[in-house]
Fold these 2 entries.
Entry 1:
Amino acid sequence: MSDPTLAVNTDMSADLWNSAAHVLDSNWSHDHTVPSRRLYPHQWSWDAAFIAIGLAYVNPTRAWRDLRSLFEAQWPDGRVPHIVFDPRTAEGDYFPGPGFWDAPAYGNRPARGSTGLVQPPLHAVAAWEVYRRAASHGTACAHEAGEQLAWLYPRLVAQQEYLTGRRDASGDGLASIVHPWESGLDNSPSWDAAMSAVPADMTLLDRYQRRDLEVADAAHRPTDTDYARYLGLVVNYRDGGYADTDLVHRHAFVVECPSFNSILAAAELALVHIAGVVGADPEVHRERARRISTAISEHLFDPATRTFRSRDVRTRTLSPARCINGLMPLLLPGLPAEQAAAIMAEAVSPRFGLPEQTGLPAPSHDRTAPDFDTLRYWRGPIWINVNWLLRRGMLAHGYHGEAEDLRMAMMRLVHQSGHFEYFHPDTGEGIGAPAFSWTAALSLDLLADRSVPAYARAA
Ligand code: 2M8
């Protein structure tokens, strides 16, 4: 438990800033940033977005380079791969690696250069944040950053068109994910109901060796049964040529996630601004943001519990699990006020117990659920990236006091425990990979925020 009365003072801020900048610097690898040197030695898609937001403060050239490296690996159909493999990293250093995914060659990219899955499309939001930061430094910087935006814009649009087109498996205007890894919230209980229908072929674990258990504690990582299901889903999608036609009948996991879709809508809103800079029509983005937001409100909200849940497209049922992804529709400024209030009620309840109760940011799963797990991946521990998104949502809906408490709680936690991948939801102890890039990057953004005079309250 963290002390909520402990203010973040100037010395702590300087420590946090310097350590965060150091983590980002040491995780830079040629043309991208790795999430963690040991556990994740390639480039990950939504990590790159969070990382760019932090790099904007300490090395804007790298922020743009990171985003460009990712989009240089974009597939011709518009999908942005969830991992871009670094050819300098040995096949055995990460599993499932390039050989397992066996992605085709395209454009000037060699075969086996990436995975065929996606991750939440936060990149337009990131690009806009990097641009905003540069533009605050004067016309010359704004001009240079505008050129980066112009390069990215058609690629960001192609990503949105892929997700809102081929991935609209239900026809209800929402993007489906075809693997829990696409959510970024990999092992969340949000997928348990849909995953229970996915066959677990345990022989896959005889044929392929898990590497995560060599570099991380088994008590934190997915179970073997879950892992067998993960691999089986990849094999099925891969063997179907990563095609998205008729997914509902051909694929065992087709799910609409409230967090993924909220980020999809937030990306359209960022594209409204980006279109303004690059001289494109913003209206198409405004309209698409409105459509996605309405679909989230209509199809992913459970009026009985007043919560947002993931929806299994194959059975058309909402998951019973109350997870952090259900709080993410707060990112949508157009969310009806009563749904925004319902999210805030859930966020401050004992289920997610925001700083006022615990002094800590929100856990990844409902604290009161029988399957709340303090250690296992995305099943209870605290993650900074989703709390950073939640805080943005609070600001979008005018919950300024709560947003500031959450910002302080995140900074306190990272300052006390270090730039870990995730944190114990009771003790705040850092767990998972140390020197984790998005924790460092987002710490810089939280520190740089001067919207509330936090340092005036320094002890
Ligand atoms: C975790 O996911 C990877 C698979 O993509 C893994 O478990 O090996 C997740 O936390 C995901 O959100 C994150 O992008 C990735 C790299 O940080 O690690």
Entry 2:
Amino acid sequence: MRLPDEVDVLVVGAGFSGLYMLHKLRGIGMEAVALEKGDGVGGTWYWNRYPGARCDVESPYYSYSFDADLEQEWEWTERYPAQPELLRYLNHVADRFDLRKDISFETTAVSAIFDEVSDVWTVTTVGPEGGQVTRARYCVMATGCLSSARMPDIPGLESFEGNLLHTGMWPHEEVDFTGQRVGVIGTGSSGIQAIPVIASQAENLQVFQRTPNFSVPAFNGPIDQEWVKGIKADYPALRERSRHTTMGIPYQRRDQSAMEVSAEERQRIFEHHWPKGGFRISSCFNDLIRNKESNDALATFVRGKIDEMVDDPKIAELLKPQDHPITAKRICVDTDYYATYNRDNVDLVDVKSDPIQEITARGIQTAGKHFELDTIVVATGFDAMTGAMLRMDIRGRGGASLREHWDAGARTYLGLAVAGFPNMFTIAGPGSPSVLSNMVTSIEQHVEWIAEHLSYLAERGCASSEANTVAEDEWVEHVRELSEKTLFPSANSWYLGANVPGKPRVFMPYVGGVGTYRAHCEDIAARDYEGFLIK
Ligand code: NA7
């Protein structure tokens, strides 16, 4: 589709956020179109096609709740959805709601400039039809939090003559590692998911680990049909409960400190939660991310599990995270990760003690050794939360640039709007629960809030809405204060921008929980959008 010259709302991105935003805007009678860099829908689930790519939230919860028929008719096959299944789901949603006809694929937004006289954005894009200019009253940035993949700053990357692949920009064709010597750089969630699958195919796998992460088994498998039946029968109540939890998943969190029980009882509770799989372990006490002692107890328990799963005690030791509190980085949810190190064809290279010096034409050179490789898989993550927006040249009131406004760290009001950038809204942006939550729950809340806000403006004949500077300053301070009451800032995570050299170290997500946040947003709306300048 060619973008129109003028439209009410331009949505940037066609992943979970962009698709629902487009559907919702139609529902309130607005003319809306979306643009998408990929040649298909799916966002994160379009780009991250690496082997083993899977969501860390269980299938029936990691899905839209806005349409009861969609909820009932879609059949998940596994407990945790794999990337191909999620992509199928999002394609189904695009077809079911006839969204494709309003999406311009293979189109990238280059700049968005706000015109103060007309209160309209002028967005310049490049796509199959060349450059285009679209004028939109509102811009919604559905650009994703983990959509700006980062190549590591390792000298010689371009000189490698083998196959170089980034997990976040994986080729569409199947990659077969059979008979290959493979190196994986990075042991975050992407590396941890890909490593067991690559190891099962490759002749030899070298894992280059700089910092170990905590990972817990998913205990994934074919979905339990009885469990799904129960969920489908009770969906409205479960969804409603999710919206008022901390993470946006309807788990019952034990309302007790880990320090309120004896060491034996604590161990029993950890053991009880471990086989439930995934994030359930972090719901077993209420203070794991706030109380160092409680956190240490869980970290020690998980390190003990690593000892049980890894045969070689020296490898087990290297795999145990020691430098950050457990759950202060999003915990990884794996299938057979630790057991993979018991395979004869897998080696762990500790690049803390033996740093990577360069990539050569034939492999990886560390301080101590040259590793000959056919393929290097780079699983080094993303310029998270702000990267995709800052790639565009966004200019608001007075020609001020977003890059300058965020020079010392992302600043937003509610994670939804930016002072000085009227009529622009962000979905799951910095300053909202976003990446600390079940993304779909948070995305739906933002889409619905934005749609309601735009209806409010239309009903009153208003042309512009802008977060005011005081409200933004107070929100930024509130987000910072809340984070400092937790252990989150003590980890060098991408939540803090710590993975990107030179990125300001500011804790970006809102840690107060999905439920508290939602109530706050609803309250702001009920008070005629307090903190917004509306005219
Ligand atoms: P992450 O979580 O940012 O992990 C990136 C990994 O890559 C991490 O282990 C890094 O080690 C490592 N890394 C980065 N640069 C280098 C260099 N130069 N040398 C060696 N190792 C390096 O990204 P993911 O894609 O795994 O996961 C992102 C999110 O997606 C995840 O949290 C889930 O929510 C889904 P470091 O810690 O920097 O020492």
